[in-house]
Design a protein that fits this description.
single chain; alpha+beta; Pdz3 Domain; six-stranded antiparallel beta sheet; six-stranded mixed beta sheet; 11 helices; 19 strands; 32% helix; elongated
Amino acid sequence: MRSRIRSTLLIALGISIGVIISISQGGLAERNAGNNDTTEPQQADGAHDLPLDELRTFVEILNRVKQGYVENVSDQDLLESGIRGMLDGLDPHSAFLDKEEFKEISISTSGKFGGLGIEVQLQNSFVRVVAPIDDTPASKAGIQAGDLIVRIDDTAVKGMSLMDAVKQMRGDPGSEVTLTVLRDGRDKPFQVTLERAIIRVKSVKSRMLDPGYGYVRITQFSSQTGDSLDRALDKLQTNANDELKGIVLDLRNNPGGVLSAAVDVADSFIHSGGIVSIRGRAANTDQQFDADPGDLLDGAPIVVLVNEGSASASEIVAGALQDDNRAVIMGKRTFGKGSVQTIIPLQNGSALKLTTARYYTPSGRSIQAEGIDPDVHIQEVNVTAAKSNGVTPFSEADLAGALTNDTDAETDSDDTEALPPLSAAEKTEQQDNNKLAESDYALYEALNLLKGLHILRAR
């Protein structure tokens, strides 16, 4: 009798869990394109047609575990594990967030949080690095996009949930953690020891590359990124004496962030039209984001640098600028994270992160699993300066009996004038360009392309 009552209660509990998962329990967290929050999902048609046979099987298994498992496990732990397993089976991004995890994911969108400074996801039971964040322990230690983390300290990652792996990597600032990493091009795993730190993300950095040509690096999209970009562009305009000829917008290894920040960044350069649309199964999921009139660069050319570590919000910006023909996208195909996650707070303080929709560029392209294909492909290569062989270059003018140039009326027909020597500023610029080619070849090529675009525009 007690067993039948227990089974009935568990079936009712299972039904309640299904209803709780289907219905939002109040409000949404901030929109986030790394944890891409959008709209509250509605209960789908037919959601009340509960699969009773499967629910009975669930209850039977729960009873078997309670009675026969080698150790005693609480009902709460079993049910939470069941919920986590259900969401883990949907896709790599849906997840159950307990109170602590929900708090941490809210903090991560504000631009200040603890850890190593890497965006990760599960791949084939291992933790894959989507991108390291600039100026964090991970980037300083040489962690790269695409690395597979197979061991955290002495614990194997295989079989862990993503949340458990993240918890293992987090810890007190100043403490150390050793990651065992697999990387393409290396025959065997290697270890990297990192010191944990409070991660304070400066999402926008800027500087002048050459006179008139600016550089803007967005490391991550946080709630302050739009305002920070405006200030950076104002500073570049001032440094260029209000004659900014164009910018390189660097989104490489940018794992995403807040959706509204991505919309703000794209809107800064697009005069009108669409930026991104969101389409899902629920009726109120669909959204369209359009640009407000105005372009902070007044049409000056833009080259956007992307790579395989550019994900989510980065892909929204790159796709919008590409479809609008506002910028040339340069680099490697992006990560392809084009799904939308809605954060749904639950009554007990935990939350549900559920994939509810997909992102589409203004032309209707889906970003999901495709990414953004650059207009100009370029590989990351190491460049070293060629050593001089001591031979002085020569030209037509050096040949015996060469004709003189007759276009300059002030130059005697039997006299030639050597080119003036480079000024100190020109020599410095040439040296800086050589250093840029050696330190960041992709950026060097982007600058050259930007100069070409400016010349074409001026003509």
